[in-house]
Design goal:
The complex is a heterodimer of chains A (294) and B (371). Chain A is mainly beta and 294 residues long. Chain A is built from three helices and 17 strands. In chain A, strands 4, 5, 7, 8, 9, 13, 14, 16 and 17 form a nine-stranded mixed sheet that branches. In chain A, strands 1, 2, 3 and 6 form a four-stranded antiparallel sheet that branches. In chain A, strands 10, 11, 12 and 15 form a four-stranded antiparallel sheet that branches. Chain A is globular, with a radius of gyration of 20 Å. Chain B folds into two domains: 169 residues, no CATH class; 188 residues. Chain B has a six-stranded mixed sheet with strand order 5-6-2-1-8-9, with helices on one face. Chain B has a four-stranded antiparallel sheet with strand order 4-3-7-10. The chains are: A mainly beta (294), B alpha+beta (371).
């Protein structure tokens, strides 16, 4: 059959869109990063290749942990109705910095080799690309189990300190800010520490994206101490993320997949203070491929 | 149901476009659906009693044998059609057969939709049966957990539920359910549906009835044939609707077309005085059984109100009868009343018209067998 004009146009769209990143972020997006005192916060879980992504309804069967940790060390479960968006609601009473955390049970997926390797490179997981090549598996489908560890920092409008911003929730892969992103200065880099099983995760790519300007992306590799430094080029809402991938435990079947690899996805969302709109003098926006200060 | 050539061409192009769009989804969003499972289903119920079910398929989460084929538009189209056919939708516990719509929305809209969410892969739509108050969804394929969002038009937020594998969803209450009708209203509505299924929609049934008319103008002959046809299709319509017998439309529809050819040819080879003979009546009765299965297919698509099942079924049948009588009356007024007593009526009317009907039936038989 001869191609019709719409079909030809559709194929052209394929050509353009196929260049987009194939990785899928997962993050917590609250109704406000700076809630007023004694407010009910809507806690949305979002998923997507690009911001703003898509709302992911609450799925109780895969939630391992979904809670808010207050500055007074109080832990409160984030409640919600299954299959509804936003995924949770929580009342914030205590003034200060609160850390919201979501940890999922593993799910699985099987990706075609081209897509799988594309996403590995996109996430800086060249070590897995190399391992597959060494095992002569580059042309094989990527069978993967994955889990999420999303964190979010909110600062109440009546907060006076930063206590609790660096709270460690004990997730297998976890991003921990070493300076308070909610009181970050414009010339102050955000330092994050990436932990894998409570130990510094070395050589992993940490990527930061601005919500309002998704093209504003910077990245850095974690050093031997698990730290990465990110000089955010503008104020606003940000997501910082990282992915680790290791060999999956043998003999597992999740869904319809017998995973060969296990990926762990960590994210951290927050809002910086408002800075004057100036052109950053140090680090320009870079693509994930161009790594900023490791 | 008969498609014109133009309609078939349009359908083929639309299906091709839908398959291409699906290829886009497979290619550019391979990983976004992870947590959603293999499907995302969104059902909307409109104020005009229509419903739309949009389905997004995430192939990576299906067993390898059930994944959508990539790079082969005709196979993709067949895959989507099979997927749509397997979907199970019921209102108040009664299954309905929705219409499958290959999506052909503007490419630009589809592409932009990728930014904020997934465009649906395929769409099912139909009419909510009169008086229905609940909706349920399931898909028998071994899909994993998937999300079903249901919404009455005008609702701010959909009501979601995760469906485990191929389980049936919890019933969703149609908030703006179609108002409960009186029995008389239901019967009038279904009689109308039955009538319009013959005139003007049922060209194949019209030709069959015309064949019965053409053989003989003897009222006894016509009455014998129409009565046999009526009894037969009433039986199979009822048995099929109650689930006692079921035959796929891929078998029933070609046989209906073949029955038209058979009766028309018989008009040519037997005498007009044979119209009231038991053998002719028996043939018409047997073919009436087939046509009843065809009517049942249509009635399944429309759906029957659970609370008024029998009145709706009977009135639909009455509507069909009235449609057939209307065809015979029109044929009599147009031809029979004027030329029925002419010596040349058989040679110039019955035989040429029957020949044309036989050829048409044969053509439909072939096209329906070929799919």
């Amino acid at each position: 059959m001869q191609l019709t004009r719409p079909v030809a146009a559709a194929l052209a769209v394929v050509a353009v869109l196929s260049t987009l990143a194939h990785a899928h972020e997962f993050w917590i997006q609250p109704s406000s990063f700076r809630p007023p005192p004694n407010t009910v916060l809507k806690v949305d879980l979002r998923i997507g290749d690009t911001l703003p992504g898509e709302s992911f309804p609450r799925k109780g069967s895969i939630i391992e942990n979904f809670a808010i940790h207050g500055p007074d060390d109080r832990v409160q479960e984030i409640v919600g109705r299954d299959a509804q968006s936003p995924a949770g609601l929580v009342r914030i009473v205590t003034p200060g910095v609160h850390v919201l955390g979501y940890r999922s049970k593993p799910s699985s997926v099987e990706l075609e080799p081209v897509k799988f390797e594309h996403y590995l490179k996109d996430k800086g997981l060249e070590k897995v690309v190399d391992a597959r090549a060494a095992a002569d598996q580059s042309k094989a489908n990527g069978r993967e189990m994955f889990s999420r560890a999303a964190k979010c920092i909110v600062r109440t409008q009546d907060a006076t300190g930063s206590r609790g911003f660096d709270r460690i929730l004990g997730y297998t892969l976890e991003l921990v800010p070493l300076n308070d992103p909610t009181s970050l200065k414009s010339d102050e880099p955000l330092i994050v520490k990436l932990l894998y099983k409570d130990k510094p995760a070395t050589g992993l790519l940490v990527i930061a994206r601005n919500f309002a300007d998704p093209t504003s992306v910077i990245s850095a590799r974690t050093g031997a101490d698990g730290r990465a430094s990110l000089l955010l080029p503008k104020s606003g809402e940000w997501i910082v993320s990282a992915v680790e991938m290791v060999k999956a435990p043998e003999g597992l079947t999740i869904g319809v997949v017998k995973p060969e690899w296990e990926s762990l996805w960590a994210s951290l969302t927050f809002q910086t203070p408002d800075w004057p709109t100036t052109t950053p003098t140090t680090t320009a926006a870079e693509t994930p491929k161009k790594e900023a200060r490791p | 149901m008969t498609l014109t050539h133009a309609n078939r061409l349009l359908a083929a192009r639309t299906a091709m476009l839908a398959a291409t769009l699906f290829a886009i989804l497979l290619f550019v969003s391979p990983a976004r659906g992870h947590e959603f499972g293999s499907l995302k289903v969104a059902a909307t119920f409109n104020a005009d009693s229509t419903y739309v079910v949009d389905i997004t398929i995430f192939g990576e989460h299906l067993p390898a044998a059930l994944r959508p084929p990539v790079g082969d538009a005709p196979r993709l189209t067949k895959y989507l059609t099979d997927f749509a056919d397997a979907a199970q939708i019921d209102f108040d516990g009664t299954m309905v057969k929705p219409e499958f719509v290959p999506l052909a929305e503007p490419i630009a809209a589809q592409a932009s939709a990728l930014v904020g969410g997934y465009p649906p892969t395929l769409r099912l739509r139909g009419q909510v049966p009169l008086g229905a108050s609940t909706f349920r969804w399931s898909h028998p394929w071994p899909v994993d957990d998937h999300l079903l969002n249901t919404r009455n038009a005008g609702d701010d937020e959909p009501l979601g539920q995760w469906i485990s594998s191929s389980a049936t969803s919890e019933p969703f209450t149609l908030y703006r359910r179609t108002p409960a009708r009186t029995t008389v209203e239901v019967m009038a509505k279904y009689a109308e549906l039955g009538f319009t299924h013959i005139v003007p929609k049922g060209l194949d049934h019209i030709l069959f009835v015309l064949s019965l008319f053409l053989l003989s103008l003897n009222p006894r002959a016509i009455l014998a044939q129409v009565t046999a046809f009526t009894i037969a299709h009433s039986v199979t319509l009822a048995l099929s609707i109650y689930g006692v017998i079921q035959l796929p439309s891929s078998i029933v529809e070609p046989l209906i077309a073949l029955s038209i050819t058979f009766v028309a040819i018989e008009n040519i080879v037997i005498k007009s005085t044979d119209g009231a003979r038991p053998t002719r009546t028996l043939v018409v009765f047997i073919f009436g059984l087939l046509h009843g299965l065809g009517f049942a297919g249509v009635l399944t698509e429309i759906g029957l109100p659970r609370s008024q099942f029998l009145p709706a079924l009977i009135s639909f049948n009455i509507g069909v009868e009235l449609g057939q009588l209307a065809v015979i009356a029109a044929a009599y007024l147009a031809v029979g009343a004027w030329f029925g007593r002419k010596e040349w009526y058989r040679s110039r009317i019955t035989i040429p018209a029957s020949l044309a009907i036989a050829c048409t039936g044969l053509y439909w038989t072939v096209t329906r067998v070929m799919g």
